[in-house]
């Protein structure tokens, strides 16, 4: 093998590993999205049940956005169940000003009952 052939082989191997790694991470990301969807069907909350999770007196702080119920108890901005004048325990879909991706790392606890 000439020096050039060795260099080309090494570069090809590096490219192949990058390709393989990117496939792996893409699949892992899709998998975690699927897990989140599964979690969303774990528990169905009525609005009345959701109201109890207002983050007050030691209760967890849950909010509903687009039918999905999220646990924001550990989100700094939602300390004591309130944020920018809004309270947890409610469906805040209509007032939600952020990109949906802000909720990507917030645990899902269920979905909102449709009636
Ligand atoms: C994981 C959940 C959330 C995070 C991490 C978050 C974070 C933030 C941050 C960092 C700001 C900038 C001002 C500040 O420092 O407080 C902000 C502003 C604001 N948030 Fe949130 N937020 C979340 C969920 C929500 C939800 C569910 C609502 C629904 C009502 C909301 C309504 C607002 C409003 C009205 C503002 C002020 C206007 C604006 O900056 O667009 N947020 N939020």
Can you describe what's shown?
With 115 residues, the chain is of the alpha+beta class. The protein has two domains: 40 residues; 72 residues, Roll (Flavocytochrome B2, Chain A, domain 1). Helix content is 37%, strand content 17%. It has a four-stranded mixed sheet with strand order 1-6-3-2. A two-stranded antiparallel ribbon has the order 4-5. The longest helix is centred in the N-terminal third of the chain and has 38 residues. The radius of gyration is 22 Å and the shape is elongated. The model has no long low-confidence stretch (mean pLDDT 90). The site of protoporphyrin IX containing FE has 16 residues, from β2.
> In terms of structural class, how would the helical and strand content be classed?
alpha+beta
Spatial order of the strands in the main sheet? 1-6-3-2
Radius of gyration: 22 Å
Strand tally is 6
Termini separation: 72 Å
The whole-number mean of residue pLDDT values reads 90
CATH architecture of the largest domain: Roll
The CATH class label of the largest domain is Alpha Beta
**Percent range for helical residues?**
25-40%
CATH topology of the largest domain: Flavocytochrome B2, Chain A, domain 1
- Share in β-strands: 15-25%
Q: Count the helices. How many?
A: 2
Shape: elongated
User: What is the total number of structural domains?
Assistant: 2
- Outline the low-pLDDT stretches: none
CATH homologous superfamily placement of the largest domain: Cytochrome b5-like heme/steroid binding domain
Largest sheet, in brief, is: 4 strands, mixed
């Amino acid at each position: 093998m000439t020096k050039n052939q060795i260099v080309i082989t090494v570069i090809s191997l590096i490219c192949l590993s990058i390709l393989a790694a990117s496939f792996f991470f893409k699949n892992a990301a899709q998998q975690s999205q699927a897990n989140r969807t599964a979690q969303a069907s774990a528990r169905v909350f009525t609005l009345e049940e959701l109201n109890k999770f207002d983050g007050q007196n030691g209760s967890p702080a849950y909010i509903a956005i687009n039918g999905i119920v999220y646990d924001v108890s550990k989100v700094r901005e939602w300390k004591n169940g309130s944020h920018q004048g809004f309270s947890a325990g409610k469906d805040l879909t209509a007032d939600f000003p952020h990109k949906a991706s802000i909720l990507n790392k917030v645990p899902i606890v269920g979905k909102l009952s449709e009636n």
